Amino acid sequence: MDLLSEVEVRVLGSLVEKDITTPDYYPLSLNALVNACNQKNNRDPVMRLDEDVVRGALDSLQGQRLAGPASGADSRVTKYEHRLQEVFNFDRRETAILCVLLLRGAQTPGELRGRADRIYRFEALDDVHATLDRLSQREPPLVAMLPRQPGTKESRYMHLLSGNTAAAEPAMVRGADSASGDEDRLARLESQVAELKGEIAEMREQLAAFRKQFE
């Protein structure tokens, strides 16, 4: 598999996210996918992509069997789906962690636990470590640990679908230090509040689009 560009990473992550969080609206039309890529919530960095750029990324992802037009979709508008499961055979935990890494970049295990909550609820931080461990031991590895930044208690982890291996240190996740329990709980609560705000915003957008159909 070729290394993915920043835009391809955003397109793939957006497809995976919407597959799980808004299944009634999935697969996505090109317009819906552009909107998903350009969301301001649950994205880092925030992007402003147009249809031509997203279409080009879809073509590249299709060539790598990672995404493409949905088969059997009952619509006159072409809709698109990811094929991550077919390529990697992830379980739900692995899908959740990789999706959040694709959409938000490098993060600590505590951040991943909170931000993945809409996709999969990790009962304990050890579950996140174990999932990162499995992803880091794949051949080739899909996740790696970054060198810890000065003054921080937790190391961050990044996906390797775009490469950047020179900046990463593949490692066994179970040996990594974790933040204190209070810090983990606070990070999770803050992430949950942000996720809920994002869901409300998405629901408002969907309701407005639905109403327009009857105007």
Structural overview:
With 215 residues, the chain is mainly alpha-helical. It is 49% helix and 7% strand. It is built from 8 helices and 5 strands, in the order αβααββααααββα. The protein has a 3-stranded antiparallel beta sheet. Helix 1 packs across helix 2. It starts with 5 loop residues before the first helix and ends with a helix.
Give short descriptive properties of this protein.
single chain; three-stranded antiparallel beta sheet; 215 residues; globular; mainly alpha; two-stranded antiparallel sheet
Question: Can you summarize this structure?
Answer:
With 215 residues, the protein is mainly alpha-helical.
DSSP summary, beta strand count: 5
Q: Which range does the strand content fall in?
A: 5-15%
- Sum up the overall morphology in one term: globular
Biggest sheet, in brief? Answer: 3 strands, antiparallel
Radius of gyration: 17 Å
Structural class: mainly alpha
| Strand arrangement in the largest pleated sheet | 1-3-2
Distance between the amino and carboxyl termini: 46 Å
Helix and strand layout, with pairings?
Layout: H1 6-21, E1 28-29, H2 30-37, H3 51-63, E2 67-69, E3 79-82, H4 84-88, H5 92-104, H6 109-115, H7 125-136, E4 143-145, E5 157-159, H8 181-212
Helix pairs in contact: 1-2, 1-3, 1-5, 6-7, 6-8
